[in-house]
Amino acid sequence: MTLPLLGADAIEALGPTGAVDALEAVLRGGLDPETAPARHHLAVPGGELLLMPATTRRVTGVKIAGVAPDNPANGLPRITGSYLLLDAPTLLPLALLDGAALTTLRTPAVSALAIRYLTGPVVRHLVLFGTGPQAHGHLAAVLAERRVERVTVVGRTPHRTDELVERARRLGIDAQAGKADGSAVATADLVLCCTTSATPLFDGTLVPDGATVVAVGSHTADAREVDTALVSRSRVVVESRAAALSEPGDLLIPIAEGAFRAQDIAGNLAELVTGGCDGEVTDGTGRPRFFKSVGAGWEDLAVAEAVHRASTA
Questions:
Q1: How far apart are CA 68 and CA 44, in angstroms?
Q2: What distances in angstroms separate CA 204 from CA 215, 281, 289, one per listed residue?
Q3: What is the CA radius of gyration of the chain?
Q4: How many other CB atoms are there within 10 angstroms of residue 54's CB atom?
Q5: Which candidate, 290, 293, 279, places its Cα nearest to that of 239?
Q6: Residue 148: which of 140, 159, 156, 136 has the closest Cα?
Q7: 8 Å CB contact between 269 and 296
Q8: Pairwise CA distance, residues 15 & 251, whole Å
Q9: What is the pLDDT along the chain (313 residues), one digit of tens a residue?
């Protein structure tokens, strides 16, 4: 049996909207993120190996992903890996997918699904932290969901920042580079954090009431992209409480400081999609809204199945 190989082209062909719709469909179909299998971590010489299994009645799969912090300095991707998709009833392999390309599509799609419920149809000012593949992917995903009037890009590398600014301008958006201190968040209604920073990117007291902040970069207890000030004053939505309370420093550090409690989490992604979150989270008023994503195997499976279905249609 020859196993189909679905590379970056096949994955990108699904597009942000296709990926967002696939994620929304599995949540509306009853998937509970709280019972999804946990991610497994293994320290290896090049960095970290992640094993992310998941299953539904139709398909089963596992992503084997590498996180290699030194790779970008050598002109190599920071995220590597493969995804094996199997038929659930028989466990026969269906396809092997490019794991890095899958992650580059899936992670922004998760953020865009949250944005679908947390923001209005027009984003007046988007502040985007980061200039790597996830930042580019998030810009595309947000534009697929919302009309963006202005974007400020905040990055550590000037030429990469300029490249993302120019890309946004080519898409018809008023774009500029922002100051490294992140002060641009003071006029933002949407903030996206797509970096590898281990320390907060901006002063959380500057974020306006009613704004939405999404953070995807950190998944370890000692690293965070947002500060305690933001978390303590926000309505917090997470992929799953189980993951949010075991992995990211964005929440674990404020909890350790006594500034936030596990019971303060307003809802998970499934509750956001199905209406289980309270009105203040979704009505666009009141306190800032903060969505924290660390990545989960069920998300990879949902998008991988959609890619495979589209490739065989």
A1: 9
A2: 13, 18, 12
A3: 18
A4: 21
A5: 293
A6: 140
A7: no
A8: 31
A9: 678 999 999 999 999 999 999 999 999 999 999 999 988 989 999 999 999 999 999 999 999 999 999 998 898 988 899 999 999 999 999 999 999 999 999 999 999 999 999 999 999 999 999 999 999 999 999 999 999 999 999 999 999 999 999 999 999 999 999 999 999 999 999 999 999 999 999 999 999 999 999 999 988 899 999 999 999 999 999 999 999 999 999 999 999 999 999 999 999 999 999 998 876 676 666 899 999 999 999 999 999 999 999 999 8
For 107-169, the three-class secondary structure string (H helix, E strand, C coil) is HHHHHHHHHHHHCCCEECCEEEECCCHHHHHHHHHHHHHCEECEEEEECCCHHHHHHHHHHHH
- Under 8 Å between Cβ of 96 and 82: yes
Q: Residue 290 to residues 40, 99, 107, 268, 303: CA-CA distances in angstroms?
A: 25, 27, 16, 11, 24
Which residues does 259 contact at the CB level (< 8 Å), separation at least 6? 228, 231, 232
Q: What three-state secondary structure class fits 72?
A: helix
Which spans in the chain are helix H? 8-28, 99-118, 133-145, 158-170, 228-233, 241-244, 249-256, 269-274, 279-282, 297-312
Q: Which of 260, 217, 222 is nearest to 241 (CA)?
A: 260
How far apart are alpha carbons 104 and 97 in whole angstroms? Answer: 12
- Show the tokens assigned to 25: 């469909």
Contact 253, 308 (CB under 8 A): no
**281 neighbors 118 (Cβ within 8 angstroms):** yes
Helices (H) and strands (E) in the chain, counts: 10, 16
Backbone region of residue 247 per phi and psi (left: phi > 0; alpha: psi in -120 to 50; beta: other values) = alpha
